[in-house]
């Protein structure tokens, strides 16, 4: 109970401690008064942590307190209104006590509140909002702010198609309400983000980078100081494709040319160490490239600047280094006696790496390989201040802050400027060099680096006249050995329509289509005479396979190798009910293998598993798929070109051919290039997959 004013207090009892501002909150807002008082959307909850000293506690004595709250304000007639509340129970010292203030408190009125603790014998002093005393204050704001107006110069509202993917624009939000403190926005399909107003009741601006073309929408609502939000403003706009390159050279000019024609930008002069008509990366639109000999004459230049290195820019192209024992520059631009940027190969760390350098900052990553194609792109984003490097469509290394040189000299292909002249000359092929004055977004980079797979073989395994199962497009047939045969569903033994006593025995259907390949596990297999795909490059192989019951040793489904080993081998391991992918490191007895394992999803129901292997040489990665799902994946850098034919149902072992499959195989597909996940999901259906998906 409260002690009466002037009443004596037992000498052995200490009064509770005075609550301080740090112990108090109005809803979740800190206790404050004056200009710092919080605004709340409705009658709040007053919260206080109350404490009692422990120095006067006796052994086993409880140390509990209760709380008394008080709030007051002036009504519309200027008459003070006061309300009190006492906690119905006592709680241990240090507990939080709360009072839900009554409804009906007028909006726009300053309300004060305070609290004190009671230990049953004495009460604490009233709480103080600050060192000078005073109560906590708040004001109720019961009006939602007005919805904001949204505007953008770069991306106006309506059906106007505006530039564009990779180009920043500004969106401005402004509500007529004078108590707005921020705006919450989200773009179509994106997360919500809140930005502060530049002043109470003021506007706010954000920067936006479109990453895809087409219709888009931003939705925005205003937040006021009490936490109330406005209705949502919806603003629709349309984004065009990104601006075309400011410089582009396919480098597919006729042999003997001394200039490189430009799709964009000025014609580039070619040094005498440049030979046109070089090889091009398969699966791309390029028909040929330029081969640079690595000498002082192996360069191309438009003899003019192409990008402003002090602003956002990106440069990239297809490259194939012939050697990796020295630094080489694929693309650069002069900045006095130094390069404003360089994109190429660096070897300073001992191992060659792809590199993009600008303004003294260098981003490095990825692993170049001699005579291997790669698409490399360097990006400097002036909005973020970051330099980034992309290799084969994926970001490599770590983005780093950069301050590029602003001097604009000549654009260079195949060399970089140094104090003593040009250096770091490129040796190998370069094609489709592009320079942009905007951000090239990740999806664009992936498209630029994409190599569309090409079908190398499709065997439906529905017929085998003369022991040869034809390839669907006239390529090499699969030659069936003894113990291998094509199964087709036999004709019924009788016709129920003409024989009322007919009860034909049901014959199982082939795995896919009208037939499949049956293998006896004792030597039966099928093979092409020569290799179907270059196993050193990217490739995809797939098949539908059903394994006969009772086998207990590993059995090879597909393989292609050489005289002693397999470049790749897909086998089934009955003991673990799993498929394995073994990638050989060379064609030699006992050569090392990289093996990954993928569990089957359960019984195939007699319809077979759809098994596929993807070797992505650009990313140095192999993946094993079962029924359209990636079951195992690992890095792999030891690929080699096999010389033997594609094998169905057997593989190389230490004793020669072995691991014969006992089961059935159907729909064997082979592609150069790495199929996408979408395309892989279409394998095994009897139809051709979408190679551009």
Question: How does the SSE layout of this entry go?
Answer:
Elements: E1 24-26, E2 29-30, E3 39-40, E4 45-49, E5 64-74, E6 80-86, E7 91-92, E8 96-100, E9 110-118, E10 136-140, E11 149-151, E12 161-162, E13 169-174, E14 180-187, E15 193-196, E16 204-208, E17 214-224, E18 233-239, E19 247-249, E20 259-260, E21 268-270, E22 274-278, E23 289-293, E24 300-301, E25 313-321, E26 328-335, E27 338-346, E28 353-358, E29 361-365, E30 374-381, E31 386-391, E32 394-401, E33 411-413, E34 416-418, E35 421-423, E36 427-436, H1 442-449, E37 454-459, E38 468-469, E39 478-480, E40 484-487, E41 516-520, E42 526-527, E43 539-547, E44 555-561, E45 566-573, E46 578-584, E47 593-599, E48 609-616, E49 621-626, E50 629-635, E51 646-648, E52 651-653, E53 656-658, E54 662-672, H2 677-680
């Amino acid at each position: 109970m409260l002690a009466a004013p002037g009443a004596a207090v037992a000498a052995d009892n200490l009064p509770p401690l005075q609550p301080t501002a740090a112990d108090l909150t109005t809803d979740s807002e800190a206790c404050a008064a004056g200009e710092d008082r919080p605004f709340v959307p409705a009658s709040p909850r007053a919260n206080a942590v109350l404490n009692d000293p422990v120095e006067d506690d006796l052994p086993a004595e409880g140390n509990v307190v209760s709380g008394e709250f008080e709030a007051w304000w002036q009504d519309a007639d200027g008459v003070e209104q006061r309300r009190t509340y006492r906690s119905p129970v006592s709680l241990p010292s240090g507990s939080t006590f709360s009072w839900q203030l009554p409804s009906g408190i007028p909006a726009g009125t300053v309300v004060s509140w305070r609290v004190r603790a009671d230990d049953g014998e004495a009460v604490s002093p009233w709480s103080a909002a600050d060192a000078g005393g005073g109560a906590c204050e708040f004001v109720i704001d019961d009006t939602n702010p007005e919805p904001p107006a949204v505007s953008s110069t770069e991306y106006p509202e309506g059906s106007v198609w505006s530039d564009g993917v990779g180009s920043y624009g500004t969106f401005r939000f402004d509500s007529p309400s004078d108590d707005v403190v921020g705006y919450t926005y989200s773009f179509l399909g994106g997360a919500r983000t809140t930005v502060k107003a530049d002043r109470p009741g003021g506007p706010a601006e954000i920067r936006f980078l479109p990453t895809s073309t087409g219709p888009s929408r931003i939705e925005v609502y205003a937040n006021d100081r009490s936490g109330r939000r406005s209705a949502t403003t919806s603003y629709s706009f349309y984004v065009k494709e990104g601006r075309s390159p400011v410089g582009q050279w396919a480098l597919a000019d006729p042999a003997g040319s001394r200039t490189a024609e430009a799709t964009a930008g000025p014609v580039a002069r070619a040094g005498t160490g440049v030979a046109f008509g070089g090889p091009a990366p398969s699966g791309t639109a390029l028909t040929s490239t330029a081969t640079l000999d690595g000498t002082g004459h192996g360069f191309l230049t438009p003899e003019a600047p192409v990008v402003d290195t002090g602003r956002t820019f990106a440069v990239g192209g297809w490259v194939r280094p012939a050697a990796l024992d020295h630094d080489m520059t694929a693309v650069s631009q002069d900045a006095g006696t130094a390069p404003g940027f360089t994109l190429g190969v660096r070897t300073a760390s001992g191992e060659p790496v792809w590199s993009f350098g600008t303004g003294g900052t260098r981003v490095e990553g990825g692993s170049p390989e001699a005579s291997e194609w790669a698409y490399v792109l360097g990006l400097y984003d002036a909005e973020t201040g970051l330099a980034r490097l992309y290799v084969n469509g994926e970001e490599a290394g770590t983005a780093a802050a950069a301050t590029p040189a602003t001097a604009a000299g000549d654009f260079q292909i195949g060399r970089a400027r140094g104090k003593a002249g040009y250096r770091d000359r490129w040796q190998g092929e370069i094609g489709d060099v592009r320079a942009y004055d905007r951000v090239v977004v990740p999806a664009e980079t992936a498209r630029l680096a994409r190599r569309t797979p090409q079908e190398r073989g499709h065997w439906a395994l529905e017929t085998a006249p003369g022991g040869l199962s034809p390839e669907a497009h006239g390529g090499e047939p699969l030659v069936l050995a003894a113990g291998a045969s094509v199964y087709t569903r036999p004709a019924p033994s009788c016709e129920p329509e003409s024989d009322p006593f007919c009860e034909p025995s049901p014959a199982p259907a082939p795995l896919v289509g009208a037939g499949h390949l049956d293998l006896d596990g004792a030597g039966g297999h099928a093979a092409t005479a020569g290799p179907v795909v270059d196993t050193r490059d990217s490739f995809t192989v797939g098949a539908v396979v059903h394994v006969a019951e009772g086998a207990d040793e590993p059995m090879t489904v597909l393989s292609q190798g050489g005289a002693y080993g397999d470049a790749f081998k897909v086998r089934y391991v009955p003991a673990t009910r799993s498929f394995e992918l073994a990638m050989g490191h060379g064609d030699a007895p006992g050569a090392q293998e990289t093996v990954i394992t993928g569990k089957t999803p359960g019984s195939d129901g007699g319809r077979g598993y759809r098994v596929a292997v993807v070797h992505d040489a650009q990313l140095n990665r192999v993946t094993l798929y079962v029924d359209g799902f990636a079951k195992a994946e690992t890095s792999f850098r030891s690929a080699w070109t096999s010389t033997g034919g594609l094998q169905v149902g057997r593989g190389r072992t230490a004793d020669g051919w072995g691991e014969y499959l006992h089961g059935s195989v159907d729909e064997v597909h082979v592609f150069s290039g790495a199929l996408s996940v979408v395309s892989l999901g279409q394998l095994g259906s009897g139809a051709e997959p979408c190679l551009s998906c």
